[in-house]
Amino acid sequence: MKEKKDPDVTIITPVFDSDDSFLKKIANKIKMQDYNGKVYHIFINDNPKRKRKIFGLNIINNKKNLGLAPTLKKGFKLAKTRIIISLMDDCLPSSNDWLKKIVEPLKDREVAATSSKVELPKKFWEKFDYFAKALTEKEQRVIIPGLDEKGCAYKKDILKKYGYFDTKNFKNGGEDTDLTIKLSEKWKIVNSDAKVYHLHKTNIRKRIKKEIQYAIIGGLVSRKHFFKLPWNFKIHVSVRIILFLSLLFFLFYDLKYSLINLFIIFLISNFRFISQFKKLGKDIRIILVPFLNLYIYFLYVFFFLEALIFKIKV
After folding, report:
1. What is the pLDDT at residue 2?
2. pLDDT at 314 over 80
3. Domain range spanning residue 232?
4. 192 with 113: CB under 8 angstroms?
5. What is the tens place of the pLDDT at every residue in 258-298?
6. Is this model's pTM higher than 0.90 or not?
7. What dihedral do alpha carbons 107, 120, 61, 44 form, nearest 10°?
8. Burial class (CB in 10 A: 0-12, 13-18, 19+), 19
9. What is the enclosing helix (H) or strand (E) of 114?
10. Both 150 and 276 in a single domain?
11. N or C end of the chain: which has fewer CB within 10 A?
């Protein structure tokens, strides 16, 4: 009996600072997939300062930096297949049936998109510097992030109705949450059994920049969709902001209450410290981690509010 043909797909990989060797590794992993449909793989380089040309890879070099959302939108428009897949330039499929697993749920007419599970492997995480490990400790497991674009599949005809991604309000993050909210109003989004390894290189300096980016994205998404966001996020952000603003208020009127407020913020900002201690506790530098967590707390609230009020973009 003839094997049923898998649907043709186009994979879009936005590129910025990944090494050429890793891009080759991604391409080779795709070629190894147990998949009998046609697979078109397009790499779009969004770093004009670093032109790319790698033998065997289909690479488009943007003439200027567009940002993640516009680059993905460009790739999705170029795709000629009914199914499009986003695969980030720091992610690697964990198995040779990844493609089949992520496409399978799209056979359901009511499903518009699917996502992969994401794992930051422990051996890779252990190469980070100490404080970068402290801030990424929560990622050192298998997570189900939803449509975060790291390894997601979409039906092109449905996304086209929504204009693919909102590049007016989002440039380098937030477009994924925005799309999720819009699709969820009418369609199903499936978290598949597929998994990708998130092999992003980082250090404390880069990680702090990433935390600021998360805060700005949170502010931009809240500006547009606050009442549609999950309750746990709304409560989490609201409590942080109220405590931050009350701290500022009491600093001018009552030092005692401001210290109490600061202590509460310190406790809340360190709700993951026990987990951090279990993984990093044998190092004397662990005593600095609570203060790093507190610093990240204030950074998050400040940049969240700035994006929420002034609509600054990443």
Report:
1. 57
2. no
3. 226-310
4. no
5. 999 999 999 999 999 999 999 998 899 999 999 999 999 99
6. yes
7. 10
8. exposed
9. strand 111-119
10. no
11. N
User: Rounded to whole angstroms, how far apart are CA atoms 42 and 58?
Assistant: 5
- If one counts the domains in the chain, the total is 2
Q: Which is nearest to 190 in space by CA: 94, 110, 93, 92?
A: 110
Verify that 95 and 176 share a domain, yes or no. yes
Helix and strand element counts for the chain (H, E)? 12, 9
Q: H-type helices in 79-121, by residue range?
A: 98-103
* Domain at 118, CATH number: 3.90.550.10
Asked whether residue 1 carries a pLDDT value surpassing 80, the answer given is no
35 and 173 together in one domain:
yes
DSSP letter assigned to residue 311: -
> Per-residue pLDDT tens for 14-28?
999 899 999 999 999
Q: Is 207 part of any domain?
A: no
92's tokens: 């690697």
Q: Is the dihedral of CA 152, 155, 158, 163 positive or negative?
A: positive
At 197, list the tokens: 């390894």
In angstroms, rounded to a whole number, what is the distance separating the alpha carbons of residues 154 and 82?
A: 8
Residue 109: count of CB within 10 angstroms of its CB: 9
State pLDDT tens for residues 236-267: 999 999 999 999 988 888 888 899 999 999 99
Shared domain check, 140 and 106: yes
